[in-house]
Design a protein that fits this description.
31 helices; seven-stranded antiparallel sheet; Alpha-Beta Plaits; Acriflavin resistance protein; Multidrug efflux transporter AcrB transmembrane fold; membrane; 54% helix; 32 strands; alpha+beta; Acrflvin-R; elongated
Length: 1009
Amino acid sequence: MGITKLALKRPVTTVLVVICLIVFGLSSILSSKLELFPEMNYPILTISTIYQGASPEDVNDLIGKPIEDEVATLSGIKNIQSTSKENVSIIMLQYEYGTNMDKAYSDLKKKMDNIKLPDDVKTPTIMELDISAMPVMSLAVNDTTQENLYNYVKADIVPELEKISSIASIDTNGGREGYIKIRLNPEKLNQYHLNMNAIVQSIKSADFTYPAGTTGVGNRKLAVSTAVEVNSAEQLKKIPVVAGNGKTIYLEDIAEIGDTVKDQDAIGRYNGKDTVTLSVNKQQKSSAVEVSKQVKKTIETLKAEHKNLDIVVIDDTSNQIQASLNSVLETMILAVIISMIIIFLFFGDIKASLIVGSSIPVSILVALILMSVMGFSMNLITMSAIVLGVGMMVDDSIVVLESCFRIHKDDDYEYSAVEGTKLVLQSILGGTITKCVVFIPLVFLAGMTGQIFKPLGYTIVFCMMASLISAMTIVPLCYFKYRPVEKHNSPLGGIVKALQNGYRNLIGKLLDRKAMVLIVAVLLLVGSFMLAGKLKFELMPETDQGTISITTKVKPGLKIEEVDKVLKQIETIVSDEKDLKSYTLTYGGNAVSMDSSSNATLTAYLKSERELSTKEIMNKWKKVMGQLPDCNVTLTSTSSMQSSGSKNDFEVILKGAKLDRLKDTADQMVTELTTRPELIKVHSDLENAAPVVKIKVDPIKAAAEGIAPVTVGGMFNSMLSGVEATTFDKDGQEISVKVEYPEDAYDTLDKVEGIMVPNATGGSVAITDIASIGYEDSASTITRKNKQYQVTVTGSFTDKVKTEKDKQMVTKEIDDQVVKKYLSDTITRGQNSEAESMSDEFGGLFLAIATAIFLVFVVLAAQFESPIFSLMVMATIPFSFIGAFGLMLITNVSISMTSLLGFLVLIGTVLNSGILYVDCANQYNETMDTRSAVIEAGFTRLRPILMTALIAILSLIPLARGGENGEMMQGLALVNIGGLASSTLLSLLVLPVLYSILRRKKKDKKVPE
């Protein structure tokens, strides 16, 4: 109580402290980084390896497996996933949360140095997954005056944007890269007894810089180097080449040399027009909002310098961040206003409302200062925590103010302020501590849940501690200085009085029917858990951000012209949508990607003001696109946390050690599932295979000719794909120089079979003499997880399957009748990444909830010096589940990470009414019998219990409505609204009964003494 007396004796000091807190709080707001979500770090390392010209099988056998075997011995690894596709291997290592990733990177680098890979494999690239480096802006660039838009963008636009220090990297998609092509003449090569390798070496010899040493000039020492520079097509033509007969000729004598563009292997469009798109990735410590401002400023500068340049901002996450934070800020202000209105309705005095209302912003500013000290950004999670905190902040202030009013007499406001605070000190202290301890488990929670919601726990704790101090200082001081008067004719005064009298009579009747009260309470609790069984589960709630991602999988090996025809059908469906704002389309171009190279991605951005929700539009498109031939279309509504929505209606993952056996099983399952009337578009990711030409070198025959098999592979790669001989700078652009054979030189299998291979004697031998050439089916992508092959079988439901319940029933039926009979000791069932994450994250949250309940028990037992009273107060927790589950079912909210977190928050908030009631009953029980104490405690505490519950519930309603990105926290708000409502009502009815039973038993035990 010393702090309350000190505040009353030193009012100027107290006010100055408050002013300092306001100044520092406002300063922390201005200096805080604005983000959508807290900073997250995933313990994932990826190994990307390019093996040009290799089939998925070769990539898997020669790169994937050796790397998997080598890195599997590293400590801390949870999962190893390998994806092998044409030309590239991608291996993802998922570590346990808490692993030192710097050490993990170093250990992995050492392991990779020991792995022996084929000579023509490029050095593997190791990268750490950085979620904060995800694109924060997408730009579409066009300039009709440029011959080669791609090269222009790479040379003139990207470097200007990369000058912004807060940008980590910029990814370029679309367009066709220009290069200088040296098109060899096969007849001339034969005439001069030359081959491609000799030409490449001649070019390299004509373009070099070589250090020669040092020399002296006066008193200076200078470096000396020799160099020959080639920087144009004309200079390339005059490069001397020594022919097989010793004669020197020029490169132009045996080849055509000129500027060209690479063959189209990618498609990039914005709103149906060919374009180059840029994805801007920010630095980890940078703010997306600041990056956006700087990028837009640079764009304006570039447009001023390049008159025909057109740069359109397709997507900007800073808009989403600001809209989301503004929405939460409005919710916070509304919550404060609601709190003050309720206080006025109960007390009838505007001063009382202002006293409690003034404690809220001070508490918030203190929380913001502490958030800044902890390095937390202002984001959707921390701001939502403050909104949650508003309802809790006023609890202590209301209880103190109500206590001051209740004991006020003889116009002695100082006595009322001190003694009123003292009377409820134990209650508010216990209530605050119980609210805080429930968040302790979050501090130790690993995984994504801990990273996202740890700041929420800290922020609420900061708010609670600040509100406790505010209730013990600012509220008594303001009460003493401004002298509010409780008006008995307040707007709700008569209603409250009637409720108190009615409640007093009701308690008396309930005490005579204890068994019935407890039976009804238990039945309601059992019913609530039955309701919980009807709720659906998902990792994160869907958010309606107006963005739909459409992934189109076409048959591998299909010519790009045919792919384009398929994609234009998708574009037509999307562009006909009246609620569409814009869209981008990308296909191919990025070899180092976890997605198959035969996948195209269309991202549709919807208007903010639209008639249909994102999910409704997605489902409408899904019905139409599901009927398109020659492709398999998957739609997802994307959010900043994840892709949500049903990617595939039906999905089964199979695992096995043998790829052939796994493929046969998957093919049989697909055949059977195709006959099911509930399913259409049934596929496995191994069935969509493209035929490849396989050249199998006979090592014995090759050795007889003095030819190494690897030499054959390198030669064919050069002849069919060309070789980069050098690069040079042209107008600030790095231009590649490639040596190639004519396009029609080896465009048929007959021509490939006619290739002659040089042997050790200086002659040559036909490739068919040392190798067999034929067609083989090849999977477009081979996936392995933890050293086992993995195949996914997917399908879409027909119109017969409409509701979520229908889907669950059909899925179970198919699982029982079809899937299970294909499982064996060698073929087992796997989980997708979302199911694994859900299992891990939910397990962690359930453990956190259990730990929080235990900690609450410890705190309450210490507060009341009795485990019996502790359990009595904790009876309010199961009562809260009744309303929480009921409201979730009514509003169709799923059980997700945020709703489970809502239950954790609920544990702390629902105890307040129980603590107030039991503490008051104990005080009355010292001077009266248990029955009278129970009744009087209910009469006395009804008003503060109703006030705090109403404020907590009503202040959460704006958050429960959703709003911009509000769907994510909607579940948390609804759980607390429903839980507080049912807990408050039932605790007022059941706690008196429990208290009378347990208190009497406790006294009975003391009688023998």
